[in-house]
Amino acid sequence: MPADQQLPTIAAYAGVRADYAPSAHPDAQGALVTAVRPESPADDMGIEPGMRVLTVNGQDLTDMIVWLWEADDETVDLTVLDPSDNTVSPCTLERFEGEDWGLEFDGAVFDGMRTCVNACVFCFMTMLPKGSRDSLSIRDDDYRLSFLQGNFVTLTNMTDEDVDNVINRCLSPMNVSLHAITPEVRRRIMGKNAARGIEVLERLMAADIEIHAQIVLCPGINDGEELDRTLAYCEAHPQITSLGIVPLGFTKHQNRFTTSFSDDPAAARAIIEQVRPYQQRAYERFGRHTFQMSDEFYLDAEVEVPPATWYDGYPQYYDGIGMIRSYRDDTDEMLSEPQRLERIREGLSRAGLKLTVVSGTSAADTVARFVESDALGGAVAPIRNDYFGGNVDVTGLICAGDLLAQLPRSLAGVMLILPSVMFNADGMTLDGYHQTDILNELTRRGAQALIVSTMPRELADALESALGLS
After folding, report:
1. Entry pTM
2. Residues in CB range of 419: below 8 A, 6 or more apart
3. Does domain 124-321 have CATH number 3.80.30?
4. 7 exposure class (CB count in 10 Å sphere: 0-12, 13-18, 19+)
5. How far apart, in Å, are the Cα atoms of 210 and each of 108, 160, 174, 243?
6. Least packed by Cβ within 10 Å: which of 83, 116, 206, 442?
7. Cα distance between residue 303 and residue 271, in whole Å
8. Residues 6+ apart with CB under 8 A from 397
């Protein structure tokens, strides 16, 4: 599509704005101030927590993109609402070079989250157990969070004004869920709005917006020849600097899927081989492999994950691509410091504690290579995911009910490590338990429990701190 060709304005493409975002109330405007740093420019002007910043340099403050864009100079003009007396006042903040404004806001978007207008066949939100808390079933698809937080979005709910905003403010890179390229296949996967996603994607690429794309690969739907067509499309568009390919995940709480690549090692190996020529050509052309397979494919195929150089600096690490390699490399580095690990082991022994680290079943063997090494002498507790069922087996989706049901009733003398990825920013598990309640229960069972990253170096740091060795 030529760069100067305008997309049609179609009102149906405007995404629904959910009202569950913390700062988005029907009668609220602007951004809620949650903290003000003492002696900061904001503090000097009398701004206090609970007030709302309505505009910045005359622009409505709808999200952090507006704030970052408009508040980049040494002065900024604000209008501020004081809810204590419902007055609105203008003010100008001034700062020294390199100084922050001293303001913290409630969330990243302030006018309501843009929600999804698709009907993706593999949507995890439609596979949740009955009775799951409401916030889990709200399907966000907000392009602003793609830029701000790395969320993958389909682009199907973007208005022309939204597209202009991305281009004019150079919101790059953007993380885009692609899934397939043939219109009929995209419509089968995503629903009636699928075509809009490609229109927007091509306009963004024409404006040199960098794209990190994703395919959720579903057996019999977008694999085979359709996967080749999608890979060829990405190969023809160098603005797509990484493409993450992840296998279908499904729970027991649906009736659309009963199998995936996790059940078929040969099929997983075939996908790896199908993608390899594209990786090789990309490396020859750009010096990067571009086409990235998720860790699950290598685990499902029962083959070794590639070396770190294969992951191009891990652009899609938090999409589960390269985590196993990173963990193994970190393990190698830590095992080259046996004296440090032996000191931790001796500290545990003096405290009368035995180390046990919780893991999802898919990563248990990888974690065990470090935790159960001779130098450290711990044990891994793999937790089967009965709450979701299906082929869900990753550490980040471990639920409290499964954890507490599968750990021993007596944990006396155990230093128990809970992976921090089990919990959201509010300290909640996916089945609605707060980490404080879980820790209290584990303490009643006799454990000394910690919630930390289980990456080898970070785990060692945490153990040293807990044992007073640092």
Report:
1. 0.89
2. 357, 358, 359, 395, 396, 398, 451, 452, 453, 454
3. yes
4. middle
5. 21, 19, 6, 12
6. 83
7. 12
8. 360, 385, 388, 430
What is the identity of the amino acid at 219? P
**What's the CATH class of domain 21-105?**
mainly beta
Any idea where the domains of the chain sit in the sequence? 21-105, 124-321, 329-466
| pLDDT 10s digits, 411-436 | 999 999 999 999 998 899 999 999 99
What average pLDDT score do residues 302-315 get?
A: 96
pLDDT band at 341 (very low <50, low <70, confident <90, very high): very high
The tokens describing 53, both together, are 């910043």
- Cα separation of 323 and 455, whole Å? 10
Identify the helix (H) or strand (E) that includes residue 164. Answer: helix 160-168
The alpha carbon dihedral of 69, 112, 148, 117 has a sign of negative
- From its phi and psi, is residue 346 left (phi > 0), alpha (psi between -120 and 50) or beta? alpha
User: What is the DSSP code (8-state) at residue 127?
Assistant: G
What is the three-state SS of 305-368?
CCCHHHHCCCCCHHHCCCHHHHHHHHHHHHHCCHHHHHHHHHHHHHCCCEEEEEEECCCHHHHH
Backbone angles phi, psi at 120, to 5 degrees: -65, 135
